[in-house]
Amino acid sequence: MGLINQTNELYYEGADGIWNSGDENYGDYQFTSLDNIIGNFMIAYVGEDKIISKIKRTDVMFHAKRAIQEFSFDTLPSEKAQEIEIGPALQMILPQDYVNYVKFSYTDNKGVERILYPTRNTSNPTAITQDANYEYTFDNTGEIIEADESTTWERFKASGRGQLANSSDNPGDLTDSELFNLYRFGRRYGLSPEEAQSNGVFYIDKLKGIVHFSSHLADQIVTLKYISDGLGTDAEMQVHKFAEEAIYKYIAHAVLATRANTPEYQIARFKKEMSAAKRNAKLRMSNIKIAELAQVMRNQSKWIKH
Prior knowledge:
This protein has helices spanning 8-13, 34-45, 57-74, 151-159, 176-184, 244-257, 264-285, 290-297, and strands spanning 31-33, 79-85, 91-93, 100-107, 113-118, 201-205, 210-213, 221-227, 238-240. By secondary structure, the chain is α+β, with helices and mostly antiparallel strands. A hairpin with a 5-residue loop joins β4 (100-107) and β5 (113-118). The protein is extended. The model is unreliable at 162-172 (pLDDT under 50).
């Protein structure tokens, strides 16, 4: 029995009969749902004379969700992207389902993404307000009053150092020493590779969930590419078919490893099978095409003149 249960017309036009209106499920055939994963596992692995004699469906669901989480970090194609315009506050709020970033970049006038790098020279620590006697101030509930932004980050933004080696730097009325430091930072003298670029920098305040950017990125279009855990919404809880077997092996190993009186050789066997299946899934998901790889490798034949 085939897996496709809709006509070509329904696939391309959707339920409303309008081409590309947003209600279609383009490309969904490459994925299988979490319910299918759980159902197939119960059929193939659970029952009399099978590896797992008896288990609750809720237990399988828990391990299946954990598998999606773990695979989303390094195996499944779970990368997301968000584009915003940076305002005068030079801040960006992290997405609701953010786990870790892949890349920050800003878009130039030609639509090319220019990569941004994290700064290691400053941060945005919690700033405690103080009175004229340098004593801490408290609110009506007795809690310490904190400033919205630290002096450290305010000075870093105002100094223009986050602009790095931008050729449009305007030294203004700087002293000789300040001017020397301005042109030394991230440039030829004492060059540091991570600072040898003019795109800008960012700093992530993980406690507040806010990204801070250097000053010249105001009014620029910034793109954040990040990874999530694949469990944010019901629609996200699906598995690419290249990784389906690896998910089954992960669930089987997790179930056996958490059960009492399971022979160690059986746990070790499924651990090896899980590792092998995950490795195969990574190779398949890497999507390496010989023709494309050959075209890139032709660049190795260039002569570099010194």
